[in-house]
Write a sequence for this structure.
């Protein structure tokens, strides 16, 4: 089962793209196949969710500055050093915490980077950000083998698969 964690600050424009994507995915992904979390930032407490025995893969989703492509997708290695578990906790450190505290070295993780442009306080995601979200949603559907509700109902506004 997938654990999908989208994070970012919704008050800072594109910084919230990971969180917005998680909310979209949570609206249609079957809860028996994926657990989706939308959060402001990564915290050590998420290791407990990641350590659940039915979780085998973790997908982190976050907006990235200065990213040339709309999406990047990279497999992560668990970082054995905890580093600073405060505001700057990285996904690889969270994998390391989970492996160390809960004996889950078998857990695999990936980071889906979402291109962000405007991270200003109070900004709203613009048309480009909406395109990034749509592409990312399609990508997650593909890698997880899920299909969105619009596809299953045959809705004329079908935009996936």
């Amino acid at each position: 089962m997938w654990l999908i964690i989208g994070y970012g600050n919704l008050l800072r424009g594109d910084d919230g793209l990971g969180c917005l994507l998680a909310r979209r995915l949570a609206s249609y992904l079957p809860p028996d196949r994926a657990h989706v979390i939308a959060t402001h930032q990564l915290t050590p407490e998420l290791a407990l969710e990641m350590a659940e025995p039915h979780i085998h893969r973790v997908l982190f989703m976050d907006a990235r500055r200065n990213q040339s492509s709309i999406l990047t997708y990279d497999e992560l290695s668990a970082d054995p050093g905890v580093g600073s578990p405060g505001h700057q906790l990285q996904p690889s450190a969270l994998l390391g915490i989970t492996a160390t505290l809960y004996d889950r070295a078998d857990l695999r993780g990936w980071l889906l980077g979402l291109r962000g442009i405007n991270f200003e306080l109070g900004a709203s995601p613009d048309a480009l950000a909406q395109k990034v979200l749509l592409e990312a949603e399609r990508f997650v559907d593909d890698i997880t083998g899920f299909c969105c509700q619009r596809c299953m109902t045959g809705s004329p506004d079908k935009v996936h698969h």
